[in-house]
Every structure is written in structure tokens, then in C-alpha cells.
Amino acid sequence: MKKWLFTLFSTEQKAAVKSRLLEINFFLIRLFAHRALLSSLYYFLFSRQFDREHKAVLQGRMLYQGSLSQIGRSSALLRRNIHRLEKGLIMQPRRAVFATDYINETVAVYLKAVQQATLCEAELKWATDVLTEYFTVVQYNAVIAKARAMFSSASKPAAAATSIPYAYQTLPSAAVSFADLSALFLRRRSVRWYQQKAVEPELIRQAVNIATLAPSACNRQPYRFDLLSNPLDAADIARCAMGTTGFADNIPCLIVVVGDLSCYPAERDRHVIYIDASLAAMQLMLALETLGLSTCPINWPDIEQREAILQQKLGLAYHERPVMLMAVGYADPQGGIAFSQKKTDELLVRDVRISSG
Ligand SMILES: Cc1cc2nc3c(=O)[nH]c(=O)nc-3n(C[C@H](O)[C@H](O)[C@H](O)COP(=O)(O)O)c2cc1C
Q: Based on the domain organization, do 26 and 125 belong to the same domain?
């Protein structure tokens, strides 16, 4: 209807209508921008742009609740709480009694994981090792004693406790110099023109396994990488984004970085999927670079129709949100690279002093 109406107008008339609508929109924005409640009203009355995010966050929270009883290959609650225990174990000075407020919850979810036997082996081992260490060093009170009794009742894999905190000085040294790192950073550029050469999925998996050493909030790692190594599939999905005009069909392999909102019980953490996934994505691009593969991050726009298309094509659940796409391939040596001037510390660093009185 909207499209049909627009055919009745000349190009100048359409431009004039668009500009008038924009003016009205900015007028409304000025009216509604200064109060949180008015902003919510604006998005209720005049724009549905946040609808998908609201629904996805709520669906994520609902599924989080379900994940407390039905444990899958990974448990967000277990990961978070085991990490909290790790932080308690390395606290300086370590408290004699700690984690009283969440140890029962942690052991309860651990026991479910053991019973249901769905958790991946490394995660189960990490949880077992850290809990064992915790119950070895903590001073007992009634709550901790009860949790300990519950923990002891579980059947655990018998192996050496290797997934526990360790001293900084035992970390392997990194022989990478500042100059080496700058060379790698300079070498990684957004590459949009590739050789028509298949990308080996094993190389991507190899890179993923080091990229995901990236930090993530409470070590939940709420993301995954959907890999399209068939060039036809890669181009099909690349065309769904907005920023691939002219080069989508040239992309031999594509990664869709997907964030999982079911890792969180509360809205306050709804942005963490984007942060954690992006930290890993950056490392992934650098790791791929060292394997001879070039990349280009591709913006994923939060536009309802495009979201629905991607959801359908990739079989994404509603709470699984595309964070970005990433083209991967062997660079065409003759292909152009945008200069893309970078801001430096002069613009990016602000010295802040808080005067104390
Ligand atoms: C989140 C994100 C989204 C991007 N989206 C696109 C895109 O849609 N299309 C594109 O050609 N480049 C895209 N880029 C690449 C940027 O244009 C590029 O990173 C920037 O110009 C700096 O150049 P460099 O990557 O070569 O250093 C994106 C980069 C990021 C980080």
C-alpha cells in the first residue's frame, strides 16, 4: 500500500514528503527524549524498532529459567557460579568462609548436570575440580556443610584436579613482542575481494579454539559461530546484510556470530552477548590472519524483515541474536584495501583525575 501510494508522486514530491516526515520525527524526538517514561511512550506509539529486542530478551529470560532444570551441553548458571567460586579461591586474603549465599544453588545445578549427563566433559570437569577445591579449603558452617554433603553424594569423574586456579607465574610466557603484534594488527585489514578458493572448515575451528580464550563476563561465553563454508550459502546469507553491496557474491565463506540471550536471568546483562561475542570475534579475525585467511566484519542491522529472514534461513531461535557476520577467505592479491584512517590516542584517550577533596 505504502509502495503503491509512493508511485503516485514524482521524485521531488517523494523527497519533499520524506523530508517533512523526518522533520516531524525530529520534533517528536525533541519532545520525548528527555524522560525515560516519555521515551518508552515514544517507542510504544511511534516506533516498533525495539519490539524484537524486548521479545528476545524476555524469551531468553524464560529459557534461562528452563535451563536451571533442563541442563544442556553447557549451563550458564553453573559457569557463572563456578567462576564466582574461582574468584573466591584467589581472593587476597582468601576469606575462611565464602560463597555461603550461592553454594547450595551451585551444587544443586551441578547435581542436575551429573544426573542428566548432558554437560560437555570439560565443563563438568572444571565444575567438579573447582567445587572439590572449594570444599577442601573453605571453613564449614551449616549451609556449606549441607552443600558439601550434597556434592559428595554425586558421582564424579575421577581424574586429577587440573581445572583449578593457579599462580600467575606459572602462565606460559608469550614471546610476542609489541612489534610482532603491531605487524599482525597492520596486516589484518577488512578484505572484501577473495580468490575463489574453498576455505577449510578445520582452519576456522582451529582459529575458534584460540579466539575463544577471549575474556567473557563471568566466563559464560554466550555466543557461537555459525559457519557457512559453501560459497553459495555464504553469498546467500551475506546478501541479507546491508553492507555487502557489490561483493556479497565474492565471499567464499561466512561466519555468523550468534549471541545467546538465554544465558541471563535479567535485562541488565542483555548487552553482554554483543560485548563477549565481539571480543572473541576480534581474536578470531587475528587468529585467522595468522593462518593465512583474511576477513571482513559485516554489520548486522537490527531490522525486523532481515532478522526474520536470517532467523528462518539459519534456523535461529528467537533469543539467538546475530551479532555480526564475518567474511572469510584467501585474499585476492590484486584486491583493493580501503585506507581507513584510524583515530589515535590524541582523540581516543581522555586523562581523568577525580580530585579527592
Ligand atoms: C561491527 C562492524 C561492522 C562492519 N560492517 C561492514 C559492512 O557491513 N560492510 C563492509 O564492507 N565493511 C564493514 N565493516 C568493516 C569496516 O568498514 C572496517 O573495519 C573499517 O573501515 C576499518 O577498516 P579495517 O578493518 O581495514 O581496519 C565493519 C566493521 C565492523 C567492526
A: no
